[in-house]
Design a protein that fits this description.
This protein is an alpha/beta fold. Helix 5 packs parallel to helix 10 and helix 13 runs antiparallel to helix 14. It has three domains: 144 residues, Rossmann fold, CATH 3.40.50; 161 residues, Dihydrodipicolinate Reductase, domain 2 (2-Layer Sandwich), CATH 3.30.360.10; 75 residues, 2-Layer Sandwich (Alpha-Beta Plaits). It is built from 14 helices and 17 strands. The strands form two sheets. Strands 7, 8, 9, 10, 11, 12, 13, 14, 15, 16 and 17 form an eleven-stranded mixed beta sheet that branches. It starts with a strand and ends with a strand. The structure holds NADPH dihydro-nicotinamide-adenine-dinucleotide phosphate and the ligand N[C@@H](CC=O)C(=O)O. The site of ligand LTNE7NMQ has 11 residues, from helix 7.
Length: 413
Protein backbone atom coordinates (compact mmCIF):
# COMPACT_ATOMS: atom_id res chain seq x y z
CA UNK A 1 0.00 0.00 0.00
CA UNK A 2 1.42 3.38 -1.05
CA UNK A 3 0.58 6.12 1.45
CA UNK A 4 0.18 9.61 0.09
CA UNK A 5 -0.02 13.00 1.78
CA UNK A 6 -1.77 16.06 0.40
CA UNK A 7 -0.56 19.52 1.44
CA UNK A 8 -3.34 22.05 0.78
CA UNK A 9 -7.08 21.51 0.41
CA UNK A 10 -8.14 24.56 -1.59
CA UNK A 11 -9.37 24.61 -5.20
CA UNK A 12 -6.74 22.16 -6.51
CA UNK A 13 -6.28 20.10 -3.33
CA UNK A 14 -10.01 19.39 -2.95
CA UNK A 15 -10.03 18.45 -6.65
CA UNK A 16 -7.16 16.01 -6.08
CA UNK A 17 -9.09 14.29 -3.26
CA UNK A 18 -12.25 14.23 -5.41
CA UNK A 19 -10.50 12.71 -8.45
CA UNK A 20 -8.59 10.22 -6.29
CA UNK A 21 -11.65 8.87 -4.46
CA UNK A 22 -13.86 8.93 -7.57
CA UNK A 23 -11.40 7.07 -9.83
CA UNK A 24 -9.46 5.19 -7.19
CA UNK A 25 -9.84 1.74 -8.75
CA UNK A 26 -8.54 2.75 -12.19
CA UNK A 27 -5.84 4.95 -10.62
CA UNK A 28 -4.55 2.00 -8.57
CA UNK A 29 -4.70 -0.24 -11.62
CA UNK A 30 -2.61 2.21 -13.62
CA UNK A 31 -0.14 2.68 -10.77
CA UNK A 32 0.06 -1.08 -10.23
CA UNK A 33 -0.26 -0.53 -6.46
CA UNK A 34 -2.93 0.02 -3.85
CA UNK A 35 -2.91 3.64 -2.70
CA UNK A 36 -4.36 5.68 0.16
CA UNK A 37 -4.37 9.33 1.17
CA UNK A 38 -3.05 9.16 4.73
CA UNK A 39 -2.92 12.87 5.61
CA UNK A 40 -4.27 16.16 4.33
CA UNK A 41 -2.45 19.21 5.67
CA UNK A 42 -4.39 22.47 5.77
CA UNK A 43 -4.76 25.52 7.97
CA UNK A 44 -8.54 25.15 8.12
CA UNK A 45 -10.87 22.36 9.30
CA UNK A 46 -13.13 20.64 6.79
CA UNK A 47 -15.93 18.95 8.79
CA UNK A 48 -18.59 16.87 7.08
CA UNK A 49 -16.42 15.32 4.36
CA UNK A 50 -16.15 11.56 3.92
CA UNK A 51 -12.41 11.99 4.57
CA UNK A 52 -12.53 14.63 7.36
CA UNK A 53 -10.49 12.34 9.64
CA UNK A 54 -7.40 12.78 7.42
CA UNK A 55 -6.85 16.46 8.19
CA UNK A 56 -3.79 17.50 10.16
CA UNK A 57 -2.21 20.86 10.93
CA UNK A 58 1.40 19.90 11.62
CA UNK A 59 3.74 19.31 8.67
CA UNK A 60 6.14 17.33 10.93
CA UNK A 61 3.60 14.48 10.97
CA UNK A 62 4.06 14.02 7.23
CA UNK A 63 7.81 14.42 6.96
CA UNK A 64 8.45 12.09 9.91
CA UNK A 65 6.13 9.32 8.73
CA UNK A 66 8.18 6.76 6.77
CA UNK A 67 5.00 5.17 5.42
CA UNK A 68 4.30 8.32 3.39
CA UNK A 69 6.09 7.84 0.10
CA UNK A 70 4.51 10.51 -2.13
CA UNK A 71 3.53 14.06 -1.18
CA UNK A 72 1.36 16.36 -3.32
CA UNK A 73 2.03 20.04 -2.58
CA UNK A 74 -0.95 22.16 -3.66
CA UNK A 75 -0.77 24.96 -1.09
CA UNK A 76 0.84 27.53 -3.38
CA UNK A 77 3.27 30.35 -2.55
CA UNK A 78 7.01 30.10 -2.09
CA UNK A 79 7.14 29.83 1.70
CA UNK A 80 6.68 27.51 3.46
CA UNK A 81 6.07 25.38 0.33
CA UNK A 82 9.78 25.43 -0.55
CA UNK A 83 10.94 24.36 2.91
CA UNK A 84 8.24 21.63 3.12
CA UNK A 85 9.02 20.23 -0.33
CA UNK A 86 12.77 20.31 0.24
CA UNK A 87 12.44 18.45 3.53
CA UNK A 88 10.14 15.83 1.97
CA UNK A 89 12.62 15.20 -0.85
CA UNK A 90 15.52 15.02 1.62
CA UNK A 91 13.50 12.51 3.64
CA UNK A 92 13.32 10.27 0.53
CA UNK A 93 9.72 11.05 -0.47
CA UNK A 94 8.70 11.84 -4.04
CA UNK A 95 6.90 15.16 -4.41
CA UNK A 96 4.45 16.42 -7.02
CA UNK A 97 3.29 20.03 -7.19
CA UNK A 98 1.03 22.42 -9.07
CA UNK A 99 2.97 25.37 -7.67
CA UNK A 100 4.62 27.24 -10.57
CA UNK A 101 5.98 29.93 -8.27
CA UNK A 102 7.95 27.23 -6.48
CA UNK A 103 9.19 25.46 -9.62
CA UNK A 104 10.11 28.69 -11.44
CA UNK A 105 12.10 29.97 -8.45
CA UNK A 106 13.59 26.78 -7.02
CA UNK A 107 13.21 24.08 -9.68
CA UNK A 108 16.92 23.45 -10.29
CA UNK A 109 17.67 23.15 -6.57
CA UNK A 110 14.75 20.79 -5.86
CA UNK A 111 15.44 18.64 -8.92
CA UNK A 112 19.08 18.24 -7.83
CA UNK A 113 17.93 16.99 -4.41
CA UNK A 114 15.37 14.63 -5.98
CA UNK A 115 18.02 13.21 -8.32
CA UNK A 116 20.52 12.73 -5.49
CA UNK A 117 17.88 10.95 -3.39
CA UNK A 118 16.58 8.94 -6.36
CA UNK A 119 13.04 10.14 -5.82
CA UNK A 120 10.87 12.19 -8.17
CA UNK A 121 9.87 15.83 -8.29
CA UNK A 122 7.08 16.21 -10.86
CA UNK A 123 5.07 19.32 -11.75
CA UNK A 124 2.84 18.63 -14.77
CA UNK A 125 0.06 20.81 -13.28
CA UNK A 126 2.34 23.83 -12.90
CA UNK A 127 1.94 24.80 -16.58
CA UNK A 128 -1.29 24.63 -18.56
CA UNK A 129 -3.48 23.18 -15.78
CA UNK A 130 -4.89 19.97 -17.24
CA UNK A 131 -2.94 20.10 -20.52
CA UNK A 132 -0.13 17.55 -20.81
CA UNK A 133 2.83 19.79 -21.70
CA UNK A 134 5.71 19.13 -19.28
CA UNK A 135 5.90 15.40 -19.99
CA UNK A 136 5.53 15.76 -23.80
CA UNK A 137 8.19 18.49 -23.84
CA UNK A 138 10.58 16.50 -21.70
CA UNK A 139 9.89 13.02 -23.10
CA UNK A 140 7.99 12.89 -26.41
CA UNK A 141 9.88 15.80 -27.98
CA UNK A 142 13.22 14.76 -26.48
CA UNK A 143 14.75 14.05 -29.91
CA UNK A 144 14.27 17.68 -30.99
CA UNK A 145 16.25 20.82 -30.47
CA UNK A 146 13.50 23.17 -29.30
CA UNK A 147 13.97 26.57 -30.95
CA UNK A 148 10.95 28.37 -29.67
CA UNK A 149 7.96 28.13 -27.33
CA UNK A 150 5.07 30.59 -27.37
CA UNK A 151 1.68 30.45 -25.83
CA UNK A 152 -1.30 31.61 -23.93
CA UNK A 153 -0.28 30.40 -20.51
CA UNK A 154 -2.72 32.07 -18.16
CA UNK A 155 -6.35 31.02 -18.05
CA UNK A 156 -7.57 33.96 -15.97
CA UNK A 157 -6.32 36.68 -18.34
CA UNK A 158 -7.48 34.76 -21.41
CA UNK A 159 -10.90 34.44 -19.76
CA UNK A 160 -10.94 38.20 -19.02
CA UNK A 161 -9.84 39.16 -22.56
CA UNK A 162 -12.43 36.82 -24.07
CA UNK A 163 -15.20 38.34 -21.95
CA UNK A 164 -14.04 41.87 -22.93
CA UNK A 165 -13.85 41.00 -26.64
CA UNK A 166 -17.02 38.95 -26.97
CA UNK A 167 -19.33 40.50 -24.40
CA UNK A 168 -17.82 43.95 -23.84
CA UNK A 169 -17.67 42.97 -20.14
CA UNK A 170 -15.76 45.34 -17.85
CA UNK A 171 -12.33 44.15 -16.78
CA UNK A 172 -13.20 44.08 -13.05
CA UNK A 173 -16.40 42.04 -13.58
CA UNK A 174 -14.56 39.48 -15.69
CA UNK A 175 -11.83 39.16 -13.05
CA UNK A 176 -14.42 38.67 -10.30
CA UNK A 177 -16.01 35.88 -12.32
CA UNK A 178 -12.62 34.20 -12.90
CA UNK A 179 -12.02 34.30 -9.13
CA UNK A 180 -15.42 32.76 -8.42
CA UNK A 181 -14.66 29.97 -10.88
CA UNK A 182 -11.39 29.17 -9.06
CA UNK A 183 -9.13 30.17 -11.97
CA UNK A 184 -7.30 33.09 -10.39
CA UNK A 185 -4.29 33.02 -8.09
CA UNK A 186 -4.80 33.93 -4.42
CA UNK A 187 -3.43 37.35 -5.32
CA UNK A 188 -4.88 37.93 -8.83
CA UNK A 189 -2.20 40.56 -9.52
CA UNK A 190 -0.01 37.58 -10.44
CA UNK A 191 -2.46 36.71 -13.23
CA UNK A 192 -3.32 40.21 -14.40
CA UNK A 193 0.25 41.55 -14.44
CA UNK A 194 1.68 38.55 -16.30
CA UNK A 195 3.67 37.18 -13.33
CA UNK A 196 1.94 33.78 -13.46
CA UNK A 197 2.53 33.47 -17.23
CA UNK A 198 6.15 34.49 -16.64
CA UNK A 199 6.65 31.67 -14.13
CA UNK A 200 5.18 29.21 -16.64
CA UNK A 201 7.27 30.30 -19.63
CA UNK A 202 10.35 30.12 -17.35
CA UNK A 203 9.52 26.49 -16.48
CA UNK A 204 9.01 25.54 -20.13
CA UNK A 205 12.18 27.35 -21.22
CA UNK A 206 14.19 25.71 -18.43
CA UNK A 207 13.08 22.26 -19.62
CA UNK A 208 13.57 23.06 -23.32
CA UNK A 209 16.95 24.78 -22.96
CA UNK A 210 18.36 22.78 -20.01
CA UNK A 211 19.25 25.73 -17.78
CA UNK A 212 17.26 27.53 -15.13
CA UNK A 213 15.62 30.66 -16.50
CA UNK A 214 14.72 32.88 -13.57
CA UNK A 215 11.51 34.98 -13.60
CA UNK A 216 13.38 38.09 -12.42
CA UNK A 217 15.35 38.11 -15.70
CA UNK A 218 12.22 38.12 -17.85
CA UNK A 219 10.56 41.32 -19.09
CA UNK A 220 6.93 40.96 -18.02
CA UNK A 221 3.91 43.07 -18.86
CA UNK A 222 0.29 42.21 -18.04
CA UNK A 223 -3.11 43.13 -19.45
CA UNK A 224 -4.17 45.80 -16.95
CA UNK A 225 -3.61 48.61 -19.47
CA UNK A 226 -5.48 46.92 -22.34
CA UNK A 227 -8.67 48.76 -23.29
CA UNK A 228 -11.71 47.95 -25.42
CA UNK A 229 -10.31 50.47 -27.95
CA UNK A 230 -7.12 48.37 -28.28
CA UNK A 231 -9.34 45.35 -28.84
CA UNK A 232 -11.10 47.23 -31.70
CA UNK A 233 -7.80 48.20 -33.33
CA UNK A 234 -6.64 44.59 -33.15
CA UNK A 235 -9.83 43.62 -34.94
CA UNK A 236 -9.23 46.32 -37.60
CA UNK A 237 -5.72 44.84 -38.08
CA UNK A 238 -7.23 41.37 -38.53
CA UNK A 239 -6.46 39.74 -35.22
CA UNK A 240 -7.00 39.64 -31.48
CA UNK A 241 -5.08 40.62 -28.36
CA UNK A 242 -3.68 37.77 -26.27
CA UNK A 243 -1.30 37.63 -23.32
CA UNK A 244 1.63 35.72 -24.78
CA UNK A 245 4.65 34.17 -23.09
CA UNK A 246 7.44 33.34 -25.50
CA UNK A 247 10.99 32.06 -25.37
CA UNK A 248 13.41 31.66 -28.25
CA UNK A 249 16.98 30.43 -28.26
CA UNK A 250 19.50 31.82 -30.73
CA UNK A 251 22.46 30.01 -32.31
CA UNK A 252 24.72 31.16 -29.43
CA UNK A 253 22.42 29.63 -26.83
CA UNK A 254 21.15 33.02 -25.64
CA UNK A 255 17.47 33.16 -24.81
CA UNK A 256 15.01 35.90 -25.77
CA UNK A 257 12.10 35.57 -23.37
CA UNK A 258 9.20 37.85 -22.61
CA UNK A 259 5.60 38.01 -21.42
CA UNK A 260 3.38 40.72 -22.87
CA UNK A 261 0.02 41.33 -24.48
CA UNK A 262 0.31 41.01 -28.25
CA UNK A 263 -1.69 41.29 -31.44
CA UNK A 264 -1.90 37.83 -33.00
CA UNK A 265 -3.29 37.30 -36.46
CA UNK A 266 -6.83 35.95 -36.77
CA UNK A 267 -5.35 33.06 -38.72
CA UNK A 268 -2.95 32.09 -35.96
CA UNK A 269 -3.75 28.93 -34.03
CA UNK A 270 -3.42 30.98 -30.86
CA UNK A 271 -6.16 33.43 -31.94
CA UNK A 272 -8.91 30.87 -31.46
CA UNK A 273 -7.79 29.92 -27.95
CA UNK A 274 -10.55 31.48 -25.84
CA UNK A 275 -12.03 31.50 -22.38
CA UNK A 276 -9.97 29.69 -19.71
CA UNK A 277 -8.23 27.60 -22.37
CA UNK A 278 -4.47 27.74 -22.89
CA UNK A 279 -2.66 27.11 -26.17
CA UNK A 280 1.06 26.42 -26.29
CA UNK A 281 3.09 26.21 -29.50
CA UNK A 282 6.39 24.33 -29.38
CA UNK A 283 8.69 24.60 -32.39
CA UNK A 284 11.02 21.58 -32.67
CA UNK A 285 13.70 21.18 -35.35
CA UNK A 286 12.35 17.74 -36.29
CA UNK A 287 8.63 18.07 -35.58
CA UNK A 288 8.05 21.66 -36.71
CA UNK A 289 5.20 23.30 -34.81
CA UNK A 290 3.29 21.25 -32.24
CA UNK A 291 0.37 22.90 -30.45
CA UNK A 292 -1.01 21.89 -27.05
CA UNK A 293 -4.52 22.99 -26.14
CA UNK A 294 -6.85 22.56 -23.19
CA UNK A 295 -8.18 24.00 -19.96
CA UNK A 296 -5.37 25.96 -18.32
CA UNK A 297 -6.93 26.39 -14.89
CA UNK A 298 -9.70 25.11 -12.66
CA UNK A 299 -10.22 22.49 -9.98
CA UNK A 300 -10.61 19.20 -11.86
CA UNK A 301 -8.39 19.81 -14.93
CA UNK A 302 -5.52 20.78 -12.63
CA UNK A 303 -6.23 17.95 -10.20
CA UNK A 304 -6.11 15.53 -13.13
CA UNK A 305 -2.49 16.53 -13.82
CA UNK A 306 -1.53 16.32 -10.12
CA UNK A 307 -3.01 12.82 -9.72
CA UNK A 308 -1.30 11.67 -12.93
CA UNK A 309 2.04 12.76 -11.43
CA UNK A 310 1.23 10.85 -8.23
CA UNK A 311 0.55 7.74 -10.34
CA UNK A 312 3.88 8.23 -12.12
CA UNK A 313 5.72 8.50 -8.79
CA UNK A 314 4.16 5.28 -7.52
CA UNK A 315 4.68 3.39 -10.76
CA UNK A 316 8.29 4.52 -11.05
CA UNK A 317 9.29 4.23 -7.41
CA UNK A 318 13.10 4.12 -7.29
CA UNK A 319 13.56 5.51 -10.82
CA UNK A 320 14.32 9.21 -11.32
CA UNK A 321 11.98 10.32 -14.13
CA UNK A 322 11.69 14.05 -13.68
CA UNK A 323 12.70 16.67 -16.23
CA UNK A 324 16.09 18.11 -15.35
CA UNK A 325 17.91 21.39 -15.75
CA UNK A 326 20.84 23.00 -14.03
CA UNK A 327 21.13 26.24 -12.11
CA UNK A 328 23.42 28.61 -14.03
CA UNK A 329 25.29 31.49 -12.50
CA UNK A 330 25.68 33.46 -15.73
CA UNK A 331 22.54 34.96 -17.16
CA UNK A 332 21.40 33.13 -20.28
CA UNK A 333 18.72 35.72 -21.01
CA UNK A 334 19.24 38.52 -23.56
CA UNK A 335 18.20 42.01 -22.48
CA UNK A 336 14.78 42.52 -24.06
CA UNK A 337 15.84 46.06 -25.04
CA UNK A 338 18.29 44.50 -27.51
CA UNK A 339 15.52 42.59 -29.31
CA UNK A 340 13.31 43.62 -32.24
CA UNK A 341 9.58 43.34 -32.86
CA UNK A 342 6.66 45.22 -34.51
CA UNK A 343 4.35 47.46 -32.48
CA UNK A 344 0.80 48.76 -32.65
CA UNK A 345 0.30 52.27 -31.28
CA UNK A 346 -2.78 54.37 -30.75
CA UNK A 347 -2.31 58.14 -30.47
CA UNK A 348 -4.57 61.09 -29.81
CA UNK A 349 -4.66 63.61 -32.66
CA UNK A 350 -6.80 66.22 -34.40
CA UNK A 351 -5.61 65.28 -37.88
CA UNK A 352 -4.84 61.61 -38.50
CA UNK A 353 -2.73 62.24 -41.62
CA UNK A 354 -0.39 64.59 -39.77
CA UNK A 355 -0.04 62.11 -36.91
CA UNK A 356 0.73 59.30 -39.33
CA UNK A 357 3.37 61.43 -41.09
CA UNK A 358 5.02 62.07 -37.74
CA UNK A 359 4.83 58.34 -36.98
CA UNK A 360 6.60 57.55 -40.28
CA UNK A 361 9.30 60.04 -39.45
CA UNK A 362 9.91 58.44 -36.05
CA UNK A 363 9.14 54.73 -36.54
CA UNK A 364 9.82 54.23 -40.27
CA UNK A 365 7.10 52.80 -42.53
CA UNK A 366 3.76 52.31 -40.69
CA UNK A 367 0.41 50.72 -41.59
CA UNK A 368 -2.56 52.89 -40.53
CA UNK A 369 -5.44 51.29 -38.64
CA UNK A 370 -8.84 52.92 -38.64
CA UNK A 371 -11.78 52.21 -36.35
CA UNK A 372 -14.66 54.42 -37.65
CA UNK A 373 -16.32 54.71 -34.24
CA UNK A 374 -13.14 56.15 -32.65
CA UNK A 375 -12.59 59.82 -33.41
CA UNK A 376 -9.82 62.20 -32.39
CA UNK A 377 -7.25 59.43 -32.60
CA UNK A 378 -5.51 57.04 -34.97
CA UNK A 379 -3.84 53.65 -34.72
CA UNK A 380 -0.92 52.26 -36.69
CA UNK A 381 1.39 49.27 -36.84
CA UNK A 382 5.15 49.69 -37.27
CA UNK A 383 7.59 47.42 -39.06
CA UNK A 384 10.06 45.34 -37.05
CA UNK A 385 12.06 47.77 -34.93
CA UNK A 386 14.25 47.66 -31.83
CA UNK A 387 12.50 47.76 -28.45
CA UNK A 388 14.60 50.73 -27.40
CA UNK A 389 13.94 52.57 -30.67
CA UNK A 390 10.20 51.99 -30.20
CA UNK A 391 10.34 53.41 -26.67
CA UNK A 392 12.23 56.51 -27.81
CA UNK A 393 9.95 57.03 -30.82
CA UNK A 394 6.83 56.75 -28.62
CA UNK A 395 8.24 59.42 -26.29
CA UNK A 396 9.03 61.62 -29.28
CA UNK A 397 5.42 61.20 -30.53
CA UNK A 398 4.22 62.48 -27.17
CA UNK A 399 6.63 65.43 -27.29
CA UNK A 400 5.32 66.25 -30.77
CA UNK A 401 1.80 66.59 -29.30
CA UNK A 402 0.43 63.09 -30.00
CA UNK A 403 -0.23 61.43 -26.62
CA UNK A 404 0.18 57.65 -26.82
CA UNK A 405 -3.05 55.98 -25.67
CA UNK A 406 -2.02 52.38 -26.30
CA UNK A 407 1.08 50.40 -27.32
CA UNK A 408 1.08 46.64 -27.86
CA UNK A 409 3.55 44.29 -29.54
CA UNK A 410 2.56 42.56 -32.79
CA UNK A 411 3.53 38.93 -33.35
CA UNK A 412 3.78 36.90 -36.52
CA UNK A 413 2.53 33.58 -35.12
N1 LIG B 1 -6.59 27.18 -9.18
C1 LIG B 1 -6.10 26.77 -10.35
O1 LIG B 1 -6.80 26.67 -11.37
C2 LIG B 1 -4.68 26.36 -10.45
C3 LIG B 1 -3.80 26.52 -9.42
N2 LIG B 1 -2.49 26.14 -9.54
C4 LIG B 1 -1.57 26.28 -8.44
O2 LIG B 1 -1.91 25.34 -7.43
C5 LIG B 1 -1.60 25.86 -6.14
C6 LIG B 1 -2.87 25.86 -5.28
O3 LIG B 1 -3.82 26.67 -5.92
P1 LIG B 1 -5.33 26.76 -5.38
O4 LIG B 1 -5.80 25.42 -4.99
O5 LIG B 1 -6.06 27.52 -6.42
O6 LIG B 1 -5.13 27.67 -4.09
P2 LIG B 1 -6.09 27.77 -2.82
O7 LIG B 1 -5.74 29.05 -2.13
O8 LIG B 1 -7.50 27.53 -3.22
O9 LIG B 1 -5.64 26.52 -1.93
C7 LIG B 1 -4.49 26.48 -1.14
C8 LIG B 1 -4.84 25.75 0.15
O10 LIG B 1 -3.65 25.50 0.86
C9 LIG B 1 -3.83 25.97 2.21
N3 LIG B 1 -2.55 26.43 2.75
C10 LIG B 1 -1.85 27.53 2.39
N4 LIG B 1 -0.72 27.61 3.12
C11 LIG B 1 -0.72 26.54 3.96
C12 LIG B 1 0.17 26.08 4.98
N5 LIG B 1 1.28 26.75 5.27
N6 LIG B 1 -0.15 24.95 5.62
C13 LIG B 1 -1.27 24.28 5.34
N7 LIG B 1 -2.15 24.68 4.38
C14 LIG B 1 -1.88 25.79 3.71
C15 LIG B 1 -4.81 27.12 2.07
O11 LIG B 1 -5.42 27.42 3.28
P3 LIG B 1 -6.06 28.90 3.48
O12 LIG B 1 -7.13 29.05 2.44
O13 LIG B 1 -6.57 28.88 4.86
O14 LIG B 1 -4.94 29.88 3.25
C16 LIG B 1 -5.78 26.55 1.03
O15 LIG B 1 -6.74 25.72 1.60
C17 LIG B 1 -1.02 27.25 -6.39
O16 LIG B 1 0.37 27.14 -6.48
C18 LIG B 1 -1.59 27.62 -7.76
O17 LIG B 1 -0.76 28.54 -8.45
C19 LIG B 1 -2.03 25.56 -10.70
C20 LIG B 1 -2.84 25.37 -11.74
C21 LIG B 1 -4.23 25.80 -11.73
N1 LIG C 1 -4.17 31.42 -12.16
C1 LIG C 1 -3.74 30.48 -13.11
C2 LIG C 1 -4.12 29.11 -12.64
C3 LIG C 1 -3.35 28.06 -13.25
O1 LIG C 1 -2.17 28.05 -13.37
C4 LIG C 1 -4.36 30.75 -14.47
O2 LIG C 1 -5.32 31.54 -14.50
O3 LIG C 1 -3.89 30.23 -15.47
Amino acid sequence: MFQIALMGHGVVGSGVAEVFYKNRKSIEKRAGQEMEIKYILDLRDFPGLAYSDKFIKDFETIVNDDEVKVVAEVMGGLHPAFEFVKRCLEAGKSVVTSNKELVAAKGAELLAIAKAKNVNFLFEASVGGGIPIIRPLHQCLAANEIDEIAGILNGTTNFILTKMIREGMAFSDALKLAQELGYAEKDPTADVEGIDACRKICILASIAFGKHIYPEHVYTEGISKITLEDVSYAEAWGGVIKLIGRAKRDENGKVTIMVSPAFVSGESQLASVSDVFNGILVRGDATGDVVFYGKGAGKLPTASAVVADVIDCVKNWGIFKAPFWVAEEDDAVLDYKDTEIAFYLRVRCDEADKALNKAKELFGEVTPLRVPSLTGEVGFVTGIIGEEQAQKAAKAMESAGYPVLGKVRVLDY
